[in-house]
């Protein structure tokens, strides 16, 4: 591969990395935190939302192609970009230098959190074969238990704040990368708006953790049997 072709491939990978952060991963995060926050309204709407997801046809294939492959690509590229990053927040004390460093740090934290989170929810659900209406009682049981101690609460606090920051600040990077906001004033205003998006998502996530912590309610399957 010639130097020009290598530069083009590098450029393309950077664009795909930026795009996958928004679609599908960012969109998933927004929906995921919104659906989980249904738990603050009551356990019944939350259980119904899990029932709907776990009764989708071809669920595992949707998850693999729409979620797991993009997350894996975004993570591998993210670790590569972190390994070649130039850090200088101490030398140049501008907020953007700090945000640049925090974006890479939060990405690493989200990756570790995801391994834990999926390893304690989706992985045992699949391993023990809880499908369709059996999934919700199992998953709600896992969450109830998770938030009865401080370890689980702190792990989720860190995971949620890291993910919502990474997404909010990542939206800014996406707009710069795709040339959507030009000029210092527009970039500053967009930065503030995206941080507010991150803040709203953080509040939704933490409210869910609080509700599970204060009010752990076990549930029976909405519908017994497979019909
Ligand atoms: C309030 C906090 C959260 C709760 C209560 C929660 C709950 C859950 C549950 C119950 C599942 C299993 C869904 C199923 O198999 O039907 C799940 C999966 C998942 N969660 Fe979360 N989650 C939270 C925060 C997060 C955060 C912050 C992220 C992103 C870093 C995240 C990313 C994921 C991913 C990628 C999956 C796998 C989705 C799938 O396989 O369909 N979650 N979560």
Write a structural description.
The chain has 8 helices and no strands. It is mostly helical and about 230 residues long. It is about 80% helix and about 0% strand. Helix 1 packs across helix 7 (about 150-175) and helix 7 packs antiparallel against helix 8. The chain has one domain (about 15-215): 3 helical TM bundles of succinate and fumarate reductases, CATH 1.20.1300. Protoporphyrin IX containing FE binds near residues 63, 67, 139 and 156.
SSE pattern? HHHHHHHH
Kindly report the oligomeric state of this protein.
single chain
* CATH-defined superfamily: Fumarate reductase/succinate dehydrogenase, transmembrane subunit
Global structural class: mainly alpha
Average pLDDT number: 95
CATH topology: 3 helical TM bundles of succinate and fumarate reductases
CATH architecture: Up-down Bundle
Unreliable segments (pLDDT under 50, ≥5 consecutive)?
none
Number of helices: 8
Q: Which small-molecule species are bound to the chains here?
A: protoporphyrin IX containing FE
Largest sheet: none
Give the end-to-end Cα distance, rounded to a whole number of Å. 56 Å
Counted up, domains total: 1
CATH class: Mainly Alpha
Number of strands: 0
**What general form does the structure show?**
globular
The portion of residues assigned to helices is over 70%
The fraction of residues in strands falls at under 5%
CA-based gyration radius? 20 Å
């Amino acid at each position: 591969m010639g130097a020009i072709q290598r530069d083009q491939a590098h450029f393309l990978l950077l664009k795909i990395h930026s795009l996958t952060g928004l679609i599908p991963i960012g969109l998933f995060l927004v929906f995921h935190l919104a659906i989980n926050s249904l738990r603050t309204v009551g356990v019944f709407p939350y259980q119904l939302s899990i029932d709907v997801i776990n009764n989708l046809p071809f669920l595992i294939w949707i998850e693999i192609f729409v979620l797991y492959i993009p997350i894996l690509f975004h993570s591998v590229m993210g670790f590569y970009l972190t390994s070649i990053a130039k850090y200088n927040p101490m030398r140049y004390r501008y907020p953007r230098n700090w945000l640049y460093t925090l974006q890479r740090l939060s990405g690493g934290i989200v990756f570790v959190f995801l391994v834990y989170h999926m390893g304690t929810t989706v992985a045992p659900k699949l391993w023990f074969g809880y499908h369709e209406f059996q999934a919700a009682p199992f998953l709600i049981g896992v969450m109830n238990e998770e938030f009865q101690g401080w370890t689980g609460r702190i792990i989720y606090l860190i995971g949620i704040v890291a993910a919502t920051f990474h997404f909010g600040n990542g939206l800014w990077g996406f707009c710069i990368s795709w040339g959507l906001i030009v000029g210092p004033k527009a970039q500053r205003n967009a930065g503030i708006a995206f941080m507010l998006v991150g803040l709203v998502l953080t509040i939704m996530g933490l409210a869910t953790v609080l509700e599970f912590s204060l009010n752990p309610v076990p549930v029976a399957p909405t519908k017994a049997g497979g019909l």
